[in-house]
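Today's session is about reading a structure prediction critically. Students often jump straight to the picture, but the first step is always the sequence itself: look for stretches that repeat, for charged clusters, for runs of hydrophobic residues. Only then move on to the predicted structure, which in these notes is written as discrete structure tokens rather than atom positions. Here is the chain we will use throughout the hour.
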Amino acid sequence: MASISRASRSPHGDSLPSPIRREAFADDAGGTNPQLPRRAVMLGLLAGGLSLLSVNSARADAPAPIPVPRTPDSTAPPPPEAASATAMPNNPSPPRATGTLTGSGLSPSPANPNPRRDAVAVGVYIPGAAQDTTLLDAFEGAAGKRLAIVHWYQPWGYTKGWYSSPLDVAALNAVAARGATPMVTWEAWGPIDGVDPSHVANIPTGAFDAYIDAWAQGLKAFGKPVYLRLFHEMNNQSYPWAYGTNGNTAQDLIAAWRYVHGRFARIGVANVRWVWSPNTENDLVAFSALYPGDAYVDWFGVDGYNGGSLLEWGGWLPAQQLFDRSYRSFWAINASKPVMIAEIGSVEQGGSKPDWITDLFTNTLPQAFPNIRAVVWFDDNLSSQGQADWRVESSQVSLHAFSRAVASL
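Below is the predicted structure for this chain, in token form.
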């Protein structure tokens, strides 16, 4: 078993990936598979003296509204050579924040004289929770918040327990029954029939058409909105489908994305919201070089983590500093497309995690990042894997801060 290698530079402005991905190992068929993180045990959710909203009162409120862009009318994707990675609109820069940078954020001057007042959808990833929704009940009861998005991961060519390649229709239905929108990160681990999808140039050859079509047909039959993240963190070379890994080029990634999108379009899938979700922008490759195009993307997504003093790539970073470069790159590509933080977490070490959470929701999002319309917390404890406890309930004070911050969203 070989651990994913990581450089020691910061992942949040000048290099490198988010911290939370799985270790990889070679299987007997010669492909690369993830080692699933150990399922986290939920913390004791209601500790002495912490007064939280009851789950019944949380259920009385409708889920936070999620803006759903119109799915563009699509036909077959253009051939790979027609994919353009450079045709970007000349948008004005977003308003730059002003004020004094503190340990938790930028204070006191707002970045936007007219901050957004509408709700931000709040979601979560908890290992196995889409398959065992009692974990979602526990989280919602502790946070006093009804979740708008429930996130999980599925691979292309690998199965281990609930982490399996067939579309998990039962999880889709269980999440939708709660009034939440599913988000599936579709990871190109392989192989399938001896062909590795992480060599993304293999995808437009037709080698995976039956598998892609099965997902498209299943999602169409499901009928309700689904967020689908394909090739997530494609600028993070810890993943075998990333740019510069396995010989993958920007044109390969664009062509493969458009090919999968095109197969869904041929089948008439209208309920999938395509989330193009790199890691926080680094110096490996610009977002604009990898972007499939507005007709193929409904949402921008971005993954970012505050590693604090615990992790070698860290350094305590306020949320605005963590995401500012990525947000400006999205704005330059399309200033009107909605953005989600598709993975986010913070350590306790190096600063105040409660203050960090509070600043994220009450200051940074409404004032600095008006296009961010959803935040999906990565609620997993990976301490045993040499990483961190990213959960909001890593301490009672952090849980309390999260509960208070999201109560009005």
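Discussion point for the tutorial: The two ends are 43 Å apart (CA to CA).
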